[in-house]
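INTERNAL AUDIT FORM
Audit reference: QA-55
Scope: verify that the stored structure record matches its stored sequence.
Auditor: D.O.
Record contents follow.
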Amino acid sequence: GLKEPGESAIKVFSYTSIGLTDVEGLGALVIPMFIAALIVLNAMMGAVYERFREIGIYSSVGLAPLHIALLFVAEACVYAIIGVTLGYILGQSLGKALIALDLLQGISLNYSSMAAIVSALIVMAVVLLSTIYPARVAARTAVPDTVRRWTPPSPSGDRWEMEFPFMVSEGEVRGLCGFLAAYFSAYSEESIGDFYAEKVQLVEEAGERGPEYAVQLLLWLAPFDMGVSQFMQLEFLPTEVKSVYTVEIYIQRISGQDTFWQRVNHRFINGLRKEFLLWHTLAAESKAHHRQAAEQMLAAAAETEQVE
């Protein structure tokens, strides 16, 4: 600091060249950036076409087209971060090697300059922008029409039938039935949750293509003061594809206003869809436990029928 004659305070001055620093030569990077964008676009389009089967699997387990598109955007983010990091490290290493070989006489490298940050941001922006179109292609592949989100069809009077956007393997269908039965049975108190379930049972019948399963129950949907109640049956039916089951939902309105019944069911069906997604994340031990519980419920139901 400096102390002026006749003054008691010490003055401190700070000088910086940041305000005088400017990034130049960006115009010369337009063509290289365009070429890099085409390379990234080609790579991401190739990734989309190579993963048609994966995209179909994501869609069959209930993943929304938007989420499938975000998977490719997340992959591009990883490429951008790794590319920027490796490029920065390579630039530092090359700079130090040139200085050690005395090939940069009179030139000093500033690795923390604004130019390095701007370059990194430009690279990341080019990668992400080049991924927008491949991500949209992936989303359209998941649902090949104008509908980007699955919505249940309109009911017919008091009956509501729909095909749920899930496929279940034969080895998991019983376990899934047990899992859903446990899920509905957990809502046996009116003061808890978005619905109240009663008389939850599993049904097994012989079909033309193999055994058919169903989860049957009575439901009261929140808010309970609106008096919306219904009978619901989740059916698991074998398809033409061997060892693959489709899911169909049958709902019969018992009470409640029609428009409000439809509105609260949209929320309920969305929650049910999340439970199907949760099933795919369970460990093998948990799935085996639910399968055993389902077999016990089916055996108990068979004994009851024999007694009657």
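Auditor finding: record pair retrieved intact. Residues 18-142 form one domain.
Action required: none
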